[in-house]
Amino acid sequence: MSDHTTTHTDTPTHALPDSTAALWPHALLILWLGIMAGFFGTYSANINLATLTLDGPTYALIQSEFNRNVRHFVFFIFFFGVLPIGLTALAMGWRDRSTAWWRVTALIVLAYALGIVAFTRAVNLPLNYLTESWTPATLPADWAATRDAWNQANLWRACLNLALFALSLWALISRLTRRQATGE
Fold it and tell me: What are the pLDDT digits (tens) for 56-75?
């Protein structure tokens, strides 16, 4: 007979679904939303205002260069990364799907998908392609209306993204408060 005894505990040996590790995607979601809010906000508060002082031919060249130069790997990682990170945060917190933090986070992911990604595809990208087709010699008479439409669309993205960032902070605070109250 062995001197070793086997004991059974009710604590599983794997990480709990709402362990500290499960908070990482939520924290990354906040970071990603903050970076994108900063990007859109900086563009609206600085670059868009500067373009208002440009004449048409200069605007055609500058805006086209901005649009072309933002298409790079790092931008795409942050722009599209919000969605898989948000979905991961939701999946890892699935057992809390009836709580306010989880539902608000689901709303954040949906609002970003529709209000940022789909909106960009439907509004900003067509305007980008239009301005990229211009040359100083082929500038349309209504170029300023296109500039104003693009600036307005970007301001929408900046404001929505800032709101989603703030909501994501609230959702994490709510989540942590709930954990503390329930002793998780």
Answer: 999 999 988 888 888 889 99
- For residue 183, how many C-alpha atoms fall within 13 Å in the half-sphere facing its CB? 0
Burial profile 52-69: b = 16 or more Cβ within 10 angstroms, e = fewer: eeeeeeebbeebbeebee
Pair of tokens at residue 21: 């590790």
Q: Which tokens belong to 106? A: 């689901």
Using the structure block, give the residue that is written with the tokens 């990354």. 28
User: What distance in Å separates the CA atoms of residue 164 and residue 143, rounded to the nearest whole number?
Assistant: 32
Q: Can you give the residue ranges of every domain in the chain?
A: 20-182
Q: Label residue 184 by pLDDT band (50, 70, 90).
A: low
Distances (CA, A) of 27 to 54, 75, 110, 150: 40, 19, 18, 31
Alpha helices, DSSP H only, in 43-142?
A: 48-51, 56-69, 73-92, 100-112, 119, 125-132
As a whole number of angstroms, the distance between CA 165 and CA 122 comes to 22
Q: How far is CA 109 from CA 98, 106, 169, in A?
A: 16, 5, 14
Rounded to two decimals, the pTM is 0.85
pLDDT for the residue numbered 180 = 82
Task: Read off the pLDDT of residues 117-133 as tens digits, 9 standing for 90 and up.
Answer: 999 999 999 999 999 99
- Other C-beta atoms within 10 Å of 40: how many? 22
pLDDT given at position 47? 92
